Amino acid sequence: xxxxxxxxxxxxxxxxxxxxxxxxxxxxxxxxxxxxxxxxxxxxxxxxxxxxxxxxxxxxxxxxxxxxxxxxxxxxxxxxxxxxxxxxxxxxxxxxxxxxxxxxxxxxxxxxxxxxxxxxxxxxxxxxxxxxxxxxxxxxxxxxxxxxxxxxxxxxxxxxxxxxxxxxxxxxxxxxxxxxxxxxxxxxxxxxxxxxxxxxxxxxxxxxxxxxxxxxxxxxxxxxxxxxxxx
Length: 231
Ligand SMILES: [Zn+2]
Known about the structure:
This protein is elongated. By secondary structure, the protein is α+β, with helices and mostly antiparallel strands. The chain has helices at residues 80-83, 86-102, 110-122, 130-142, 174-177, 186-197, 210-229, and strands at residues 4-16, 20-27, 31-37, 56-62, 68-77, 162-165, 170-173, 182-184. The chain is built from 7 helices and 8 strands. The longest helix has 20 residues, at 210-229. It has a domain at 4-80: CATH 2.40.50.140. The protein has a 5-stranded mixed beta barrel with strand order 1-2-3-5-4. Strands 7-6-8 form a 3-stranded antiparallel beta sheet. Zinc ion binds at residues 152, 154-155, 157, 172-173, 175-176.
């Protein structure tokens, strides 16, 4: 195969050998690809700084089975404003990590790609974790793991309180769940279901307390950990 050209996001980087970088990219039209950028850590490299985390880049590469070979790289957007705020950086990194762990390699994923771009662009003005929680729920859904947050999966109870059961990808009411799973109050379940089923740009409508954000994070972490162990 000859040279290919793509545009996308840097999800993960690691140093390799003396001066190389191995970079995981999420490219429009190509999906998740891992590539080696030879000599990118040399002081005079034209690739210096291009493959920093969360950058949007254009890349020319030789596709190979496991590790593509970067021929050229250009920085398109470094999201400088976003990166000045640690909370927002951590939000963006959390979503990048989800994509790195759950995207199947070499598979075009157009809707998750567009959603991630919208998320990064909107994050500059975001003060809370709502849009991160919303985008993580939506990405899980787009990747075939939509969490069931509307009612108890066993008896259909909608009143709650509930527990989230990662192995079932959804809620059970307290009497069906017993001690299993992560506690979720009915109000939080409704808020998360709302975020999941409405456009990302509307997530500001939902109010979550600090405590609720923590519970949502715990739930997402357990679920994503479980899914990424299975892939
Ligand atoms: Zn039940």
